[in-house]
Amino acid sequence: MNRRIGIDEMDRMCNAIMQLGYQPHEARIAATTMSRLVNQQGFVVGSSEHLAWARREIGNDSIVTAAVDALAA
């Protein structure tokens, strides 16, 4: 299922990432990357391709996992 990531979902991802101890600007960069991969590049949220590219670009598995978990909630 291909969908777009909106502001509310961006906020949920940011909050989940900040709960890991990251600063708001770091969380916003990661959430923006996650949403760009979906909204502009057409990846399906949580797909193996989406996660692989996110891990490559963000470089931190725990951030990617927290963001995807926030979207699934």
Describe the overall structure.
Helices cover 71% and strands 0% of the residues. The chain is globular, with a radius of gyration of 11 Å. It is built from 4 helices and no strands. The protein is mainly α and 73 residues long. Helix 1 packs across helix 4 and helix 2 (24-39) runs antiparallel to helix 3 (48-58). It starts with 6 loop residues before the first helix and ends with a helix.
- H and E order: HHHH
Coarse shape: globular
Major sheet: size, sense and barrel closure? none
Q: Count the strands?
A: 0
The class by helix and strand makeup works out as: mainly alpha
Cα(first) to Cα(last) distance is 16 Å
- Unreliable spans: none
Classify the helix fraction into a percent range: over 70%
Please indicate the percent range of residues in DSSP E strands (runs of 2 or more). Answer: under 5%
Q: Would you tell me the overall average pLDDT?
A: 94
Note the total helix count: 4
Highlighted features:
mainly alpha; globular; 73 residues; 4 helices; single chain
